[in-house]
Amino acid sequence: MTALLSVSDKTGIVELAGQLHALGIRIISTGGTAKALKDAGIPVTSVSDVTGFPEIMDGRVKTLHPKIHGGILGRMDHPSDLEQMREHGIEHIDIVVVNLYPFEQTVANPASTDADIIENIDIGGPAMVRASAKNHEHVTIIVNPKHYASVVDQLRSGGVTPAMRRQLAMEAFSHTAQYDARISQYLSGTVGQGFLDEGALPLRIDQPLRYGENPHQAAVLYGTFTSLFEQLHGKELSYNNILDIDAAMGLCVEFDEPTVVIVKHNNPCGVGSDASIVEAYRKAFATDTVSPFGGIIAVNRPIDLSFAEEVHSLFAEVLIAPSFSDDALALLQKKKDRRLMRVDLAAFADAARTSVRSVANGLLVQQADAILYNDEALRVVTSRTPSDDERSAMLYAWKIAKHVKSNAIVYASHDRSLAIGAGQMSRVDSARIAVRKAQDAGINLSGCAVASDAFFPFADGLLQAAEAGAACVIQPGGSIRDEEVIAAANDKGLAMMFTGTRHFRH
User: Fold this and answer.
1) pLDDT in tens, 452-484
2) Which domain holds residue 252?
3) Quick count: other Cβ atoms within 10 Å of Cβ 300?
4) Quick check: is 372 in a domain?
């Protein structure tokens, strides 16, 4: 038997080669892998000795040769293949162990030039991986070091099973598909290309999940989401936890001032800002004292003992902050099921985002909603100009409305949410729900700002806000009845601003 070893990630490769050699398997290899094996005292034949042709073009061409690909692709149950292999002196290659140039890591390195990145596009490696995977009836292909031990165990037991070879082939094709998707993603960014006619999403499992939204749904997390967080305490994150963490932090990083965000079922149910994060939490919690139970609390400042004491009695699924003091952590860890997450705020704010939703036989893909409003389009449209305090309250409400499921209505002051109506089929219904929740909580809406994620199609929604006590309104504008709505605002003495930006969240 013969094994070809050529890896960029050399984790465990010397140990694997030693075990293959002990089983009497001949090893051929290339470049740095061959050197590592020779340095470890393991007999190895260079690919150049097999092909009779040297590596050329700085190693760009070394394995692209009939004696390599013929050895990989030869079908051992096809007499014509065997005859041609004998005729051309091609030896069968039974095992191929290959992983690819570190393209993704090179792109992530800020010191990398475009030339560095292009040079780290592997050619020979993917060709060998795909050839081996295609001929998996006769060849074992390994692209991940985690399989080294199980393959060796099967070799010791008589040979790698067809089921294992097929599983490894599937993983090999997934590996090259992910690799090519990363390259396409990089190149599309360099040429200003938007959405490709043909494309693939570069996916790698970040964390397996026990189940999805419900226990009967299988689920997994792809990407590098968990690199933005460190879990300090509590049960493993669930599918729903991850959605809510992303929603809570997405809103939290909109604010520069110390801010607390409380999220339940992917909707904010309270937001508060204050120099004291304890006071910020009290403002957020006061918006809705029922929904935070079992919710997610996100804070954009370090959590100290005073904050921990304030929230400890509330059952929150997850508490997120950039850091926790030791005494705060000791107290919060007393509830074993509470998840405590340390977040890298800057990394989260800068993280790449693409919105992907599944539909029957397809995916809807869009850019993330990354802007708050259009500076050039932001304008006062009523006779009355808002005061500085009103303008501040409107923008505060607008930040929240961007993150509320449509139809969204948010009442707010300059430093806290007052009432939130979310996810209704009618904008008027969302406004009614918000007002009712404020009444139930004993919150006075007099003089506040109201934000609507999309335009008011009729004056009725705006009139309802005025009746509830709102003094100023912020909305995208763009309705064919804008003039009617503006006239109603003027009649009620409201100040109103158009943002020119809509924030639907379905």
Assistant:
1) 998 988 888 888 889 999 999 999 999 999 999
2) 231-346
3) 26
4) no
